[in-house]
Structure formats: structure tokens, C-alpha cells
Write a structure and sequence with these properties.
The complex is a heterodimer.
Chain A (H helix, E strand, L loop, with lengths): L1 H36 L5 H15 L1 H9 L6 H20 L8 H27 L4 H7 L3 H26 L16 H32 L5
Chain B lengths: L1 E5 L11 E2 L6 H12 L6 E4 L29 E8 L3 E3 H21 L16 H23 L7 E3 H22 L9 H26 L24 H17 L2 H28 L21
Helix pairs in contact in B: 2-3, 2-4, 3-5, 5-6, 6-7
The chains are: A mainly alpha, B alpha+beta.
Organism (chain B): Cicer arietinum (Chickpea)
EC number (chain B): 1.3.99.5
Pfam families (chain B): Steroid_dh (PF02544)
């Protein structure tokens, strides 16, 4: 079984990682180009397509962990990818009013650099069995800066979207109904902001532990 | 007997070790440790050292046993690994605070004018289903608190203090979340017949659940001794964890009568948690009562939710 599936597994994961890497390369290129030529108000529109594809494809990573294709635990992937999907689809895509903000640029730059490094690191690992040590170092070091910038952009954009969420009543279910239930997207967004308070330092600490593990070990493994 | 206590990293915990008589029990040792380093016996975890690199689980010392049971031959020294489990509370305390929240918070939504703060002005007409639900809910949690003090027999085990905060957050938040919808001024009540079936079935399950708890109580001695026994009688002849079965079905009854997503969500989470406990208990009982060497064989039974599991 393992011998039959492991080349297939490697082929699939290599393809997956390099495909998504290509998407994030496009995002970074389009963001920087637009930023230089047109200004930050146009960044989202220019990068929307590859951004939506690349970030949505990340949902597969939760699946990879679940079926045992990769070792990353769901407790680490689900909050990371879940919050990204919420930002992309639940905020930027759903509320166009937020798209022209300067924070979109800092968000997409932080995300795309992180992801370019991450996907090339895993792509290399799957394709060649190991990644160059400088890539390993980047994988476990850039987050030191890009996590704080990315997370503050995320929090800032959710906060900016709040009045638009409240006014639009989008995705809301109101009582009365036979199932005696309601859903208010505005309060859900505030709840998400609340989760960021303990969640962000937790993820940062988790990455610091990963960094220590990955970089302290000699290359022979 | 000379005892050396080390941490898991090998550091000595009690300087110079502890000298005890040869007939001393583990409890005596725990008392001696308490005198020296002021860590209450409930938070002390004592294990036999394992070989480095070994994947085996270390043997945890039982406070009732004699220290001699853990020495090889008639050795005069014993090295033990000490771990501080942090502050502990009894299960009675844990359960009491878990259940107190829902018992007190639910009536707040029924009696007090909270909905005006959620934007619902004007006169609130209370539906019959809301009054019955209040009695049903409060009866349920009062029952659980009274059972905690007068029915359940707990083993020596304790729970970390941090679990109190975690479990209370779970019970108190979910309780308020359900209470908000069931007591809502614009609730859409189910038909009279459905309500009666729901509450009737639920009460029947609560009474059965109480009877299950009485059966479980009689498996243990007054001080919680007796260890694991095969539960028999009433629904236990069919299901290993009939106490969970009846608990799950009584929530189903409440939900049939009140019909809220919040309630069904709680039912789903509770079922998931209790199923995990039930699977563990079923496995443990089957392993303990394997029918070999004179031990009784565990009978064929459902685990928690007949006819599915």
C-alpha cells in the first residue's frame, strides 16, 4: 500500500504546493505592480482572481491533514486557514467598501510573502526530499515580522468592515421562524475579533516552538 | 526505607530524600512530601522511573498501597518521579459550579426584562411552552446538583482547577445561549401535541436517568471504593452507559418540545462528548472482564445509543 501510494502522494503534494505557490507569486506581483502604478485603492481588484483561487485552495490543506496525507494537526491548520477564508470571502469579497483601504496592501504583502516561502519550502521537500537550509530558515523566521503585520491588517480590516456589516444585514437570519433561531453576522464578526485576542499570541508562540524545533536540529535528519 | 524524589528531568525535588519506616504506605509518603514542600497530596503524581527512550507508560503509585509493593526484592531505597499536577478540586466541587450556572442563569431570561436590551420593546406575552420549559430546565439542573451531593459516589480522583473554568464556560455559555431562544418574546411554539410528547418523553428519561444513577451508586462502597464493576439491572442490561443514554434522550425530549437550533447544537456536542466517555468505559470494562482466569466475561451490550452504537 505505502509503496504504491507514496510516489503518488509525493507527486500530488508537489503539484499542489507548486500550483498554489504560483498563485501567490501572481498575487505578490500584481499587488506590487498596482501599488506602484495605480495606488493602493486598486490593489484588491488587480489581485482578486489569484487571491481567491490560492487562498481557497488552502482549504485542501485541512483535508490533507485529516486524511493523513501530511502530518500537520487540524488544531493548527483549521484556525489559520479558517481565519484567512473568513477575511477573503467573509470580509473583502462580501463587503467591497473595505477593498480600497491601505490595510489591504499590507495584508496581501504579508500573506503572499509568507505563503511563497511556505509553499516553496513544502514543494521542495515533497519534490526533492529536502529543502535548502536558507529556505528552512526563511520559513521559520519571516513570520516573526509577517505574523504581526498580517494579523494587525486582518484585525484592522474586520474592524473597518463592522459598520458596513451592521448596515447591510447581510447573511443575517431573523426571528421569528419555526426553528426559533437567529444569526447575526455583525455579532459573529465581533466574536471572531474576540477570538483573535487569545488566538494570535497562541499561534505566535506555537510558531516560536516550531522555529526552535526546526532550526536547532542539525540538518542530518 | 530511603526515598529519593526526582522531577521528570532528573532534578532532585526533596533535598536529601525522605526516610520512612518499612511499613509505610504511599499515602504516608505523600503526607511526608506535603510536610517538606507544601504540595497537597491531591496534586502529587508519583510514578516509577522508566528507562529513557522507552515508550511505555510509567506506573502511577496507588495511595492505598504499601511502598514495599513497589520495591524490587527487599531493597532499602526507592527512587520515584514526582510531578506537581497543579491545584486540584474534588469532582463534587467541579460539578456543583458547572450546574449552578445554568440553574441560575436560565430563570434570568424568563423572569427579568432582558430582551429590551436586545431591541425588543413592548409587552412580552409568555407562552405556555416557555413556562413548562423553565420548570423542566430547573428541575433537571436541581436534580443534577442534588445527585452530586447525595447520590454519586466519587473515587479518590480529583480534577485540575483549570477544568473548573473551562467546564463552567461551556455550561454557562451554552445554558444562556439556549435560554435566550427558548424564552424569546417572538418564539414560534410547536404544536400542543408535539410539546406534550417532548416534555413527557423527557421527564420519563430523567426519571430513568435517576434510577440509573442509583444503580451506579450501589456498585461502589460509601467511600467510593470498589473500583470497576459490571453494572446490571434495568437499562444496564441492554446498554453499558444507560446513564448517558437517558441523559441524551431527555435533552432530545426538551428539544422536541422547544425546537431551537441552539438546543440541538448543545445536544450534538453533549452526545459527542458522552459517546467518547462511553466508548472508553465500554473498552475498559471489556478488557477488565475478559472471562479468563475466573474473571467474569463482560456481556454483549450496546455502548450508548441503541440501536446504532
Amino acid at each position: 500500500m505505502a509503496t504504491l501510494f507514496s510516489p503518488l502522494r509525493r507527486l500530488y503534494l508537489t503539484l499542489y504546493n507548486f500550483t498554489v505557490l504560483f498563485g501567490w507569486l501572481q498575487v505578490l506581483y500584481l499587488v506590487l505592480k498596482t501599488l506602484k502604478e495605480l495606488g493602493h485603492e486598486h490593489v484588491y481588484t488587480a489581485a482578486e482572481k489569484p487571491l481567491l483561487y490560492a487562498q481557497t485552495a488552502a482549504a485542501l490543506e485541512i483535508l490533507h491533514g485529516l486524511v493523513g496525507l501530511v502530518r500537520s494537526p487540524i488544531t493548527a491548520t483549521l484556525p489559520q486557514i479558517g481565519s484567512r477564508l473568513f477575511l477573503v470571502w467573509g470580509i473583502l469579497w462580501s463587503f467591497p467598501e473595505t477593498r480600497t483601504h491601505l490595510l489591504v496592501s499590507s495584508l496581501l504583502i504579508s500573506w503572499s510573502i509568507t505563503e511563497i516561502i511556505r509553499y516553496s519550502f513544502f514543494g521542495f521537500k515533497e519534490a526533492f526530499g529536502s529543502a535548502p537550509s536558507w529556505l528552512l530558515w526563511l520559513r521559520y523566521s519571516t513570520f516573526l515580522i509577517l505574523y504581526p503585520t498580517g494579523i494587525s491588517s486582518e484585525v484592522g480590516l474586520i474592524y473597518i468592515a463592522l459598520p458596513f456589516i451592521k448596515a447591510s444585514e447581510k447573511y443575517c437570519i431573523r426571528m421569528p421562524n419555526t426553528w426559533n433561531s437567529s444569526f447575526d453576522y455583525f455579532y459573529a464578526a465581533i466574536l471572531v475579533l474576540g477570538i483573535y485576542v487569545p488566538g494570535s499570541p497562541h499561534m505566535y508562540k506555537y510558531m516560536l516552538v516550531q522555529r526552535k524545533k526546526a532550526l536547532s536540529k542539525p540538518k542530518s535528519e | 526505607m530511603k526515598l529519593t524524589l526526582v522531577s521528570r528531568s532528573g532534578r532532585e525535588i526533596v533535598k536529601g530524600g525522605i526516610q520512612l519506616s518499612d511499613s509505610a504506605t504511599v499515602a504516608d509518603l505523600q503526607e511526608a512530601i506535603y510536610k517538606r514542600i507544601k504540595k497537597h497530596p491531591s496534586r502529587q503524581r508519583l510514578t516509577l522511573p522508566v528507562q529513557p527512550g522507552s515508550k511505555e507508560r510509567p506506573v502511577v503509585l496507588n495511595y492505598k498501597k504499601s511502598l514495599n509493593d513497589y520495591t524490587s526484592g527487599n531493597s532499602e531505597t526507592l527512587t520515584l518521579v514526582f510531578k506537581d499536577l497543579g491545584p486540584q478540586v474534588s469532582y463534587r466541587t467541579l460539578f456543583f459550579f458547572e450546574y449552578l450556572g445554568p440553574l441560575l442563569l436560565y430563570p434570568v431570561f424568563y423572569y427579568l426584562p432582558v430582551y429590551q436590551y436586545f431591541g425588543y420593546k413592548g409587552e412580552r406575552v409568555i407562552q405556555p411552552v416557555q413556562t413548562y420549559a423553565l420548570y423542566y430546565w430547573c428541575f433537571h439542573y436541581a436534580k443534577r446538583i442534588l445527585e452530586t451531593f447525595f447520590v454519586h459516589r466519587f473515587s479518590h480522583a480529583t480534577s485540575p482547577l483549570s477544568n473548573v473554568f473551562r467546564n463552567c464556560a461551556y455550561y454557562w455559555c451554552f445554558g444562556s445561549y439556549i435560554a435566550y431562544y427558548v424564552n424569546h418574546p417572538i418564539i414560534y411554539p410547536v404544536s400542543d401535541l408535539q410539546m406534550k410528547i417532548g416534555f413527557g418523553f423527557g421527564i420519563l428519561c430523567q426519571v430513568s436517568n435517576f434510577y440509573c444513577h442509583i444503580i451506579l451508586r450501589n456498585l461502589r462502597g460509601p467511600a467510593g471504593e470498589g473500583g470497576y464493576q459490571i453494572p446490571r439491572g434495568f437499562l444496564f442490561n441492554i446498554v453499558t452507559c444507560a446513564n448517558y443514554t437517558t441523559e441524551i434522550y431527555q435533552w432530545l425530549g426538551f428539544n422536541i418540545a422547544t425546537q431551537t437550533i441552539a438546543g440541538y447544537l448543545f445536544l450534538a456536542v453533549a452526545t459527542f462528548i458522552m459517546t467518547n466517555w462511553a466508548l472508553a468505559k465500554h473498552r475498559r470494562l471489556k478488557k477488565l472482564f475478559d472471562g479468563k482466569e475466573g474473571r467474569p466475561r463482560y456481556p454483549r451490550r450496546w455502548v450508548i445509543l441503541p440501536p446504532f452504537l
